[in-house]
Q: What sequence folds into this?
């Protein structure tokens, strides 16, 4: 089987405190990665892969061994893996890229894939976000704030981060509601961006935990990838074929 398939998935939130069995959730993600090992040319992890991650200078959080091992195996076999930073896995620095052999990108990635031009980003940093969200996002990415956070012992910071994430999820439904093509923030952003950059063929977003595939023009489509908390959705593209948004069930 030729390796010519590019995969996109996001919002796995591995390690989240609201999972009844986080290890089983991790095993499910590993099973998917193993199922595409023979066909994958490239994999794009479009943010919030981990529910929390912070690399200290000499230590990293426990867990995710199976998942990291599966990524390393794929990278070692020649699969190109790109990890787009989201708003939960912000603090990836040099450990994961160097140990796993993957590319880590924070922000927007413009790349030609299968002969098409892609705009790929998690989605938390584009469009019209509330002022409080923009403030927190800026604070979390501030180098001084990161240094101050790293000075606190991990036994305090890591439980706090997972607790905050769990509380936030309990206050907001996992399956966010699609607001329609004219009101959905990521779709509005994509249309505005496309008006000035008409060469984009595909926009690929995560973040919103909804599965959406909408044509923006005769030659452009925007996709929101959904999530792996319940749906296990992902997108694929092969040379000569359009992007498809699919769901996966473990055999």
A:
């Amino acid at each position: 089987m030729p390796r010519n398939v590019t995969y996109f998935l996001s919002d796995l939130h591995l390690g989240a405190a609201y999972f009844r069995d986080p290890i089983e959730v991790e095993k499910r993600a590993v099973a998917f990665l193993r199922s595409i090992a023979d066909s994958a040319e490239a994999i794009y992890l479009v943010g919030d892969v981990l529910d929390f991650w912070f690399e200290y200078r000499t230590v990293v959080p426990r867990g995710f061994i199976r998942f990291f091992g599966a990524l390393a195996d794929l990278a070692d076999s020649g699969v190109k893996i790109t990890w787009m930073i989201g708003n939960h896995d912000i603090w990836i620095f040099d450990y994961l890229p160097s140990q796993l052999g993957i590319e880590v990108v924070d922000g927007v990635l413009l790349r030609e894939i299968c002969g098409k031009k892609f705009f790929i980003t998690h989605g938390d940093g584009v469009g019209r976000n509330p002022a409080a969200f923009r403030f927190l996002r800026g604070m979390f990415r501030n180098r001084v704030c990161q240094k101050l956070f790293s000075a606190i012992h991990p036994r305090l910071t890591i439980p706090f981060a997972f607790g905050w994430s769990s509380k936030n999820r309990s206050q907001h439904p996992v399956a966010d509601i699609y607001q329609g093509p004219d009101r959905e923030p990521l779709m509005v952003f994509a249309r505005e961006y496309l008006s000035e950059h008409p060469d984009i063929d595909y926009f690929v977003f995560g973040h919103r935990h909804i599965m959406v595939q909408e044509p923006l023009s005769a030659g452009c489509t925007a996709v929101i990838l959904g999530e792996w908390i319940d749906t296990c959705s992902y997108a694929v593209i092969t040379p000569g074929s359009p992007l498809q948004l699919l769901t996966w069930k473990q055999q």
